[in-house]
Design a protein that fits this description.
Blueprint lengths: L1 E5 L4 E6 L2 E4 L1 E6 L3 H13 L2 E7 L23 H14 L3 E4 L4 E4 L5 E4 L6 E2 L1 E4 L21 E2 L2 H4 L7 E5 L3 H10 L5 E5 L15 E2 L3 E6 L3 E6 L4 E3 L2 E4 L6 H8 L3 E2 L2 E2 L12 E3 L10 H19 L1
Parallel strand pairs: 4-5, 4-10, 5-6, 10-21, 11-18, 12-13, 12-18, 13-14
Antiparallel strand pairs: 1-2, 2-3, 7-8, 8-9, 15-16, 16-17, 19-20
Helix pairs in contact: 1-2, 1-6
The structure holds flavin-adenine dinucleotide (FAD).
Length: 308
């Protein structure tokens, strides 16, 4: 048997007696209980190369003691439970990569392309297991103006701000990505770090304001951002892009249905897009390890059927 890596298709191709077997690629975004549970089933199915990409902490790492999960005579720390899960997945050949997923793109042949600060990769199937959505910053005006000038998705809403000035709140790669999306349609884009240092280089045509924000104000819709130092910035829209892209940010941008801050899935954890699944806290319901693990297993079974 011989094999070679086909650079064009990115697949490992084995040739034996003239037979060519394409090894498919499965991506799991998130190394929490949902993502790791899914990776175990996928790895054992031998249907795909399995990669788990993660950035930031799993909610489980913050749990001091877990005593409502099956199999432990004594309480176990969330950190230990997670480390054991990752070690088990690695033993089965799952690859773990620490990288922020900023966005996903669907190609015409229904392959999924990741957008990361360092490039992109193509996968046959993807599971979003990125946990509960990140919290919205506690700035006066954000909740009041949601849908009236406050947005969480540049790709979805940039059209509404054609030729108008907009601002992006955030200080990382995700904020920059949103700003770069908006710059194509808006008259100007300003990044507001709200007291943080900018963590990535920003092109000169995108000004940065580091002052702390007091409130977002307007009449019926957003018209300005007021800073604690008394200065203000006129803007037609404010895009929230703090930290990493949240679950619904990723889903919405690629066209998967969401329901509030949850990704909408059926009982097999399938989204409305073929080959795209979601599991764990990002799908709502019981926000517990047992449910995340069960979701991950169900999603993996669906992904295995899809790959077949
Ligand atoms: C303080 C605390 C105590 C808890 N106590 C209990 C308890 O006693 N019992 C119990 O059952 N449950 C408890 N929970 C809840 C439990 O931890 C969660 O339900 C569970 O971790 C959800 O798993 P998940 O895989 O869906 O998401 P998470 O565990 O949150 O994992 C999400 C993963 O997604 C990754 N990620 C997110 N965005 C991106 C991105 N853009 N790119 C790449 N990676 C990304 C993160 O790095 C992380 O690896 C507790 C939670 C907290 C916070």
């Amino acid at each position: 048997m011989c094999y070679n890596r086909n650079k064009k298709s990115n697949y490992l191709i084995f040739q034996k007696n003239e037979r060519v077997i394409h090894i498919k690629k499965a991506l799991i975004i998130g190394a929490g209980p949902a993502g790791i549970s899914a990776s175990l089933y996928l790895a054992r199915s031998n249907k795909a190369d399995v990669t788990v990409v993660f950035s930031g902490k799993s909610a489980l790492e913050k749990a001091e003691k877990i005593e409502n999960y099956f199999g432990f005579a004594q309480p176990v720390s969330g950190k230990e439970l997670l480390e054991n899960g990752i070690a088990g997945a690695k033993r089965l050949g799952v690859k773990f990569v620490e990288e922020e997923i900023i966005g996903l793109q669907l190609s015409p042949d229904f392959k999924y392309e990741t957008i990361t600060p360092h490039g992109s990769e193509t996968y046959d199937t993807v599971l979003i297991a990125t946990g509960a959505n990140r919290t919205t910053p506690k700035i006066k005006g954000i909740k009041e103006f949601e849908g009236r000038g406050i947005s969480y998705c540049a790709v979805c809403d940039s059209f509404f701000y054609k030729g108008k000035p907009v601002a992006v709140i955030g200080s990382g790669e995700y904020a920059l990505h949103e700003a770069m999306t908006l710059i194509n349609t808006a008259s100007s884009v300003t990044i507001l770090t709200n007291g943080e240092e900018m963590k990535t280089a920003v092109p000169d045509n995108i000004p940065i304001i580091k002052d702390k924000i007091l409130e977002i104000s307007g009449e019926n819709k957003v018209s300005r951002v007021i800073f604690e130092n008394g200065e203000s910035l006129d803007t037609a829209g404010v895009f929230i892009a703090i930290g990493t892209a949240g679950s619904t940010d990723l889903a919405r941008k690629i066209g998967a249905e969401t329901d509030g801050n949850k990704i909408f899935v059926d009982k097999n954890m399938s989204t409305n897009l073929p080959g795209l699944y979601a599991a764990g806290d990002c799908t709502g319901g019981l926000l517990q390890v047992s449910k995340a693990v069960a979701d991950g297993a169900a999603a993996a079974m669906s992904m295995i059927s899809f790959l077949k």
